[in-house]
Amino acid sequence: MSEKKRILLIDNEEGLCRMMEAVLLDSGYKVKAYTRSFQAVEEFVPGDWDLVISDIKMPGMDGLEVLQRIKAMQAHIPVIMITAYATVEMSIQALRKGAYDMLTKPFEPEELLYRVKNALTQTELIEENRELKEELAGKFRFENIIGASDGLKSALEKVAKIAIRDTSVLITGESGTGKELIAQAIHYNSPRKGKRFVAINCGALPESILEGELFGYKKGAFTGAKESRAGLLEAADGGTLFLDEVGNLPMNVQKTLLRFLQEQEFLRLGDTVPTKVDVRVLSATNSDLKLAVKSGSFREDLYYRLNVVNIHLPPLRERRGDIPLLAAHFIALQNSKFGLKVKGLDSEAMAAVTQYDWPGNIREMKNVIEASMAMENADHLTLPVLAQFIEMPAEIHPASGEETVEGDYSAAMARFEADYLKGLLARYSWNVDAAARDAGMNMATMYRKIKKYALRKD
């Protein structure tokens, strides 16, 4: 036993209590025994124990009250009740109050150990399931970020590390790769998550408007400024400002932004008194800012201020293994939104979308799925419908595996997980310990997955 499980034992019959304590200690458990139920409950600290064993019939505070009080302090801890009077009514009452199991006196030490092992195993499975859900949520999905390819996994691991650190981040990648979703993931996993996330596309506004939008202006600062107005930096005070396509910032705005990043203050247009705010700045670009710095169109000092940490998002053509997951996700969204029952893509359609290079990346894929579902009458998206929206590969190789790829997200994730683990185990020559470490799983979870998906060494 790598780590001793901690058991709290309560029984007013001192001889039996000491016998159970000895049996459990000899089996490698850490045990603390009480013969007074009041004292046991009074000294109970949530989180200190993995299992409680309590007699039911005790003077003062009986076992059912012990059960109720301990469950109020630590709801998920398993409790085994011991009784010499195991009536159906009493058993039902104990189970309704949250008891995990009932043990009837007299019992052999082997029976005690068997019940204890079962209770602790069940608790471990519940805890592993919770940890696995958190792991998948944290590593493979931040809200609507779908996928688990190596490139995306690397980016999300970096997001998890830097989200809590109040530093500037530059997110790079082609148009449509999900840069704003990454920025949102950083914000909503940071201490600023309770404040606003404000985004602006620096390439969507003309230069004459952009400066006023970002920094605000005083009444009379220019023709048409009939009243003072706060900019987006003030709107994001305490939160996060996301500058999309930051490479399009004109030089005069770059200068003002640089001052803000250095001093945490700026001047509204037409103002002489600086405005101070507390804002984290995240930025993104689909262009090469290093080339822009060399050509003189982007300030070098601003580049280094924005690019304290860089997160690069790979294009969809470099993470083809995520395409079935993304397709299933977008189909599920449309089904939910419009009450549709499209099951997924047929095998030819899946082969086509997997082989297509998606120059518009995830944004293009989302639009194509939505358009195809508007035109499709069958229960699966088909090749002729998809061909209306994307250029078909010259030669489509049949998709391996199932003839159809269902749109249910859970099923798609299960298919992905099985393939992912099989590839990982092959990479480590079926060294399960090494594969588990790489995947961020514990050994028990890895073995459970191997059994679940019936994985075999080829």
Q: Could you explain the architecture of this structure?
A:
With 458 residues, the chain is an alpha/beta fold. It folds into three domains: 6-133, Response regulator (Rossmann fold, 3-Layer(aba) Sandwich); 150-314, P-loop containing nucleotide triphosphate hydrolases (Rossmann fold, 3-Layer(aba) Sandwich); 317-452, Helicase, Ruva Protein, domain 3. 47% of the residues lie in helices and 13% in strands. The protein has 19 helices and 15 strands. Residues 133-141 and 400-407 have low confidence and may be disordered.
Furnish the topology, listing elements before pairings.
Blueprint: E1 6-10, H1 14-26, E2 30-34, H2 37-42, E3 51-55, H3 63-73, E4 79-83, H4 88-96, E5 101-104, H5 109-140, H6 150-162, E6 169-172, H7 179-188, E7 197-201, H8 207-215, H9 232-235, E8 240-244, H10 251-263, E9 265-266, E10 275-276, E11 280-285, H11 289-295, H12 300-306, E12 309-312, H13 323-338, E13 344-346, H14 347-355, H15 361-375, E14 380-381, H16 383-386, E15 404-406, H17 409-427, H18 432-439, H19 443-452
Parallel strand pairs: 1-2, 1-3, 3-4, 4-5, 6-11, 6-12, 7-8, 8-11, 13-14
Antiparallel strand pairs: 9-10, 13-15
Helix pairs in contact: 13-15, 13-17, 17-18, 18-19
